[in-house]
Design brief:
Keywords: Calcium
Shape: elongated
Largest sheet: 7 strands, mixed
Domain TLDc: 217-385
Helix content: 25-40%
InterPro entries: EF-hand-dom_pair (IPR011992), EF_Hand_1_Ca_BS (IPR018247), TLDc_dom (IPR006571)
Number of strands: 12
Organism: Acacia crassicarpa
Protein name: TLDc domain-containing protein
Distance between the termini: 79 Å
Order of helices and strands: HHHHHHHHHHEHEHHEEEEEEEEEEHH
Strand content: 15-25%
């Protein structure tokens, strides 16, 4: 059923309904009837409170979405035809149509000016409600500080007459989403029920010993959510702490030893003495090589003072670098990402006491810190694993394993440093 303001003969409804299969339309009709019944509207419409409760959209973001879905009629009544028209544009449209819809969602003030205050409101709602990261989990820095990290990468190039706040253009918005793929994923799935695995809402479980004070970690939940925007679903489940310099010391050998038995991807994070936080996602295990290796799943990122992800551009295959115990100056010992030898996108020397970061074409990334020469203050590494694997590892926590298992770990370490053959 529809109200008089959105009749079934509306040409937008007729064209929008063709974007769905008959089964999809029937499912939408069933959903609408259920929500309309909860709205006590005799089946005519869905109310704002019921809409917000079902889609988990409280606050300004939910009100703005409801306003757009009801075609800005201001009558607080969502008809079935409204739902079909909105979902067709928002979920079935072209990339441009979907981006335009998201662009309008972000303007929570509804004044046709997408300013910094609009984005701030949306980000606060994302962290507090959509990701359930409450203020009580904020540690040394405030919620405003973490919001600013995501705002600092935004550009506001529009200047509206009579408006004191600079505005974001559509091109600015698209650039912002390129740097923050998690934001784009989540904002593109708000009409998906939250209990159905809404894309962009996943935060990996961060696994570590209960004896470790989590306040020492560089990897906050908001940062983890930011990084997983560039990953597939199975890489989001659980991340296990493999190395932390505050616990293990700034030691390359200890780092290699701790990660030698992890065969999956890793997330390397660095905080330097300038206070900047950044790192890289290594899709392949860290193994001894005399040249670049890896695949196009690797990327580098910034976390503070701004959050940004830089994925491979395809300009070259210089993804990962791991050189151990080489004597040639042409093969610098250490680990790194992108760029070229001695001019990496990100590099840590084998002493873990220095490194560098330059702009590089591999990822289209800038210098990740305030200066190209870096002095690490904190280094930590997380191993990407599945929930099932994490459960097995969790039950065996603190047990080094059988003699054969310990021998295998030792062998992996020897292989890493290039000494395995000398023991045979």
């Amino acid at each position: 059923m529809g109200n008089a303001q959105s009749p079934p003969s509306d040409p937008r409804y007729a064209s929008s309904s063709r974007a769905f299969t008959q089964k999809e339309l029937e499912d939408l009709r069933t959903l609408f009837k259920s929500l309309a019944a909860q709205s006590q509207s005799n089946g005519d419409y869905v109310s704002l409170p019921v809409f917000q409760s079902y889609f988990g959209l409280d606050g300004p973001l939910g009100e703005r979405m409801f306003d757009l879905v009801t075609q800005q009629r201001r009558d607080k009544k969502l008809a079935f035809e409204d739902l079909v028209i909105a979902k067709a544009a928002y979920e079935k449209g072209t990339t441009d149509e979907i981006d335009q819809f998201i662009f309008r969602i972000l303007d929570v003030s509804g004044d046709n000016i997408l300013g910094r205050s609009d984005l701030e409101s949306v980000l606060i709602e994302i962290f507090n409600n959509l990701l359930s990261i409450k203020d009580s989990e904020v540690r040394s820095s405030s919620r405003q500080d973490i919001v600013n990290v995501f705002l600092n990468v935004a550009t506001f190039s529009k200047h509206e007459e009579g408006c004191t706040e600079e505005a974001m253009s559509f091109e600015d918005f698209r650039s912002w989403c390129t740097h923050l793929p998690s934001v784009r994923k989540l904002l593109g799935s708000l009409l998906t029920p939250p209990d159905s695995g809404r894309p962009g809402s996943q935060v990996p479980h961060l696994l570590h010993s209960d004896a470790i004070d989590s306040d020492i970690f560089l990897l906050r939940k908001e940062y983890a959510w930011h990084i997983v925007g560039a990953l597939s679903q199975h890489e989001v489940e659980a991340w296990k702490l493999l190395y932390h310099s505050a616990l293990n010391g700034l030691s390359f050998n200890t780092f290699l030893g701790n990660i030698s038995n992890h065969e999956g991807p890793t997330v390397l994070i660095i905080k330097d003495k300038e206070g900047c936080i950044y790192g890289g996602y290594a899709s392949q295990p860290w193994e001894r090589h005399a040249e670049f290796y890896g695949d196009m799943k690797s990327f580098v990122f910034q976390l503070n003072p701004k959050a940004s992800i830089y994925r491979p551009t395809g300009s070259n295959n210089n993804l990962q670098w791991c050189a151990v115990n080489f004597t040639s100056e042409d093969i610098p010992n250490g680990i790194g990402f992108g760029g070229r030898v001695n001019h990496f996108g990100l590099f840590l020397s084998a002493n873990f006491d220095q490194g560098h970061t330059f702009s590089c074409s591999t990822f289209g990334s800038p210098c990740l810190s305030k200066s190209s020469r870096i002095s690490p203050e904190v280094i930590e590494c997380w191993g990407v694993t599945t929930a099932a694997q994490a459960g097995i590892q969790g039950r065996n926590e603190g047990v080094k394993g059988t003699i054969l298992e310990r021998y295998k770990e030792d062998r992996n370490m020897l292989k890493m440093v290039g000494l395995a053959n000398s023991t045979e």
